[in-house]
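>> received
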Amino acid sequence: MKLEKTWQLLIGKLQGWFNDLVLILPNFVAALLVMGVFVVAAKLLRRGFLRLFGRISERSALVGLGGTLVNVGVLCVGVVVSLEILHLEKTVMSVLAGVGVIGLALGFAFQDIAANFMSGVLILVRRPLRVGHLVKTGDYFGHVQAINLRNTIIVTLSGETVLIPNKSVFQSPLVNYSLTDERRVDVVVGVSYDEDLVEAQARAREAVEAIEARDGAREVEVFYSAFGGSSIDFQLRFWIDSPEESAYLAARSDAIIAIKRAFDAADITIPFPIRTLDFGADATAALAQLSPRSGSSRAGSDGAGVTHVS
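>> returned
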């Protein structure tokens, strides 16, 4: 009796499930058809978004992100509509709540990745730098090779490829040399205390004015800055029409050559640094034995055993 009753209950349960399946089958087929339509629509809309904004925008990473968001958004709407057709409204609310909790947990777990991602979006929107720009951020100086949603790729002037997290690029000071079409070149020079400072200033200015790479619209500036240990120092400034590092180095090199030639022609001395070396009396006597000339000339006149080297 018990076995027969159990069997009847099982048959009744299966019949109930079958009846429910038959009743829900049309809705299930309709939900599948609707979901299929949304899948096709998501692909078409994503493709159209990429084509449209890919033509009018150079920020390919940002356009790709927008296309992905469009695709995911349409698919989410399709899932919600399909569940509504199946009369699973409570399931929809449960799914949304679960997604919210999971998103919050993932946000805390991957906050660095999220920060880099958001920084990448802001960099692509605000565009403080672009591919090909010569920039300096942190300890890295070079040309921007690519800007992704997670990192910025810079090729340094010595050829190394550096992947910098977008969070570091966005939060650190950034020098972009390519935002202007000019750059200032600074050269520090020293002249002897015996020289005529006005003449040295004029000679240096004339020498640099003849450099071909110099921007003729801007004057060459020469300012004396300090009384050095062996020279009076001045700073010479001029501008060039290129922000590139190669042009900057070439212009500075040409300026140094031109100033040296001009000073040589005018007999203006650029003095060597002077160093005073104290060897002590015993060491001075030993040096005097090895080198009688230097020992007699300096040790005899400098009783403290101090040797001056220039």
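>> Confidence is low (pLDDT under 50) at residues 294-310.
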